[in-house]
Design goal:
single chain; 73 residues; two-stranded parallel sheet; 4 helices; 2 strands; 14% strand
Length: 73
């Protein structure tokens, strides 16, 4: 995604339900996304998010893999 919001993606895909993490409930969705969802007749759904960074998970996996490669695991 090259833009700050998913508005153009929403307009292109036209989802019936646009899912966002429930962390967005506190700060609110960008108006551009709300407008796009309204234009396509979709709804917003919220899913629980974990307090875990995907980057941290990748680093953990990489270090475990490297340790196994050099026989430290």
């Amino acid at each position: 995604q090259d833009e700050e919001t998913a508005a153009s993606i929403i307009r292109a895909v036209r989802p019936a339900v646009f899912l966002k993490g429930n962390d967005w409930l506190k700060r609110g969705l960008p108006q551009a996304e709300l407008d796009a969802i309204a234009e396509v007749g979709g709804a917003v759904g919220y899913v629980p998010v974990q307090d875990v960074s995907s980057s941290d998970r990748l680093r953990q996996f990489a270090w475990r893999f490297f340790d196994e490669m050099v026989g430290r695991a």
